[in-house]
Amino acid sequence: MAPEASAQSSATADTRTTVPAPRLLPSGTLAYLRVDNVNDIRADWGESSLGKMLEDPKMRPFVSDIYQILSDLFDQPGKEMGLTLDELRSLPQGQLAIALLEGPPPEEKTDEQKAEEEEDDDAIARRLRAKRRQQNSFAVAIMIDAGPNNQAMETLVGRLMELAEKNRFIVQNEQIGSIELTRLVRQRGNGDVIEWFEQDGFYVIGLGRTIAQSIAKKLNDEQRDTSQSSGRSRRSTTTSSPETETLAQNADFVAVMSRSIGAEAEIPQITFFVNPYGIAKRIIARSGSAFFIAPIVQDLGIEKIRGIGGSVFRGGEIIESVGHMHVLIDPPRDGFFGVLRPEDIEVSPPVWVPADAASFTCVGWDVETAFKNMGKIVNRFAGEGNFEKNLEKPAKERFDVSLTEEVFPLMTGRVVTIQRYQLPANWNSMARAIAIEVKDAKEADKLLEKVKAKVPPQRMTPEVIRGKTVYFSEKSTMDRAGIRVPENSVMLLGDWLLFCDSREIVTQMLRAEAGEIDRLADDEDYVLLTSELGAKLEGETPFLFQFNRDAESYRILYEMANSEETAQSIQNRGGDNPIAGRVADLMRRNDWPKWEDLEKYFSVSGIFGYDEPGGIHIGSLNLRPIE
User: Fold this and answer.
1) DSSP 8-class letter at 18
2) What is the predicted pLDDT for the residue at 77?
């Protein structure tokens, strides 16, 4: 059984033990998201970087005003539910889970219903379409551990029952062991069925016939096994069938979640699992084009994705949080997966990456093989030779360059991107540079010359900066207040072909390459992050590595939030809406704290990825700021 599925929920204020959702959900669950203990996350929020920033005395007035606006927005729906925003937030006290499930099969019609059915061609076609949708329907299960005697939850349930009565739903009750199940059915039996039950403050809501009923039966089985085990293993006393097997017993779920735990010793705070092929298959089967779409999906090999799952853990003194995600893929990787060709690489930053880079990403990819496999897929559906006609041929005609014979063979497969913050703060404040490592710089220079000879002069104007030739494209005439105007360029720097959208980032890279400014490889934040990531790699060599300065991303959002341009945009879009006016006024206040007073709450984060025979693993790490 998967470690996450077999673990009990974290201790709460009371002594109850909630059965983890994977042991209550059916084996064929299509998607699932679970929070182990909401109270733990609430407690950890105050120690998080964002939580500390929002609790800063200089930020409290703004946070209070924003929350008041949200409360006012919630006022009308809150009256319908009989709850305030504070009460709604307090509902979950322990486990919280939501799942997308396969809908139950349609109910058999009675003889009377069959006799009333029309027999003309249109009526038969409508019944077939309806039956197809019902056979491939979706259902939803929601589980909330609200704790015992939760008055807010009882109020919400009471209000929902009032609405059901008002809309003339038929209320049915069913006793399942010690659980009383309530079922809401429309009078004519048409439409969705809603089921719910509560036991010791643990609420389960099922949107779909038999959904909550099935969970109630599994919960009863769990409780019976616990009381009868007398210290014996559940495995020795429990038998399962395809109908009773749970998500925790699903082999794909177990495989994905066991890889998503990583080397962590704690129970994950958040877990998720998705069966993308199972979802796609039902969507396709519901449509009238299944006979056409299904073979395409099969040829692409999408069914090889057996599951995608992940987890999030709390950290310690140095690490704030750890995340894992695993994609379980059946070999061999053909069809669509022939394009997924990650390669193990050296992920250290080149000498030209400046220390003030907001982010640095290094990826290894077998581009040549991926390109060939992509061609096979396109030609399979668009016709033989179509891929080459629409990609290889235009490149040859326009630039006199062959992608398959000159460009791809020249690439090592290592690609680097960096981002650097530039004023003014807006959606394109991050200047970017994309660098492709080449095997032979002289051959790369020849390709640049061939391209230069073919394009208009204004597209590649040479300019010498700090002894290096940089080819700039004509600057855009776009002149919008607060928007950075890109300056696109291309250059060869050592064994790297660089494409940049900012003159400033070009200058910084050249200064770093010359050793005039600090380099990222020597930065203490980068060194600390890589040392922590080393333990998470578990001896694997990555094909992906990313370093991020979180403060730079938050800085853009923060400075945009208190800019006049953003305030005016919200006011214009909101028109006469009073809430929009209040938000705009909040942004225009002149007592916003300086960002320099808040960036101390943020540190750095990283992402890594490695390939293995059974799939692809992605991990993330957030460090706490050093005080």
Assistant:
1) P
2) 85
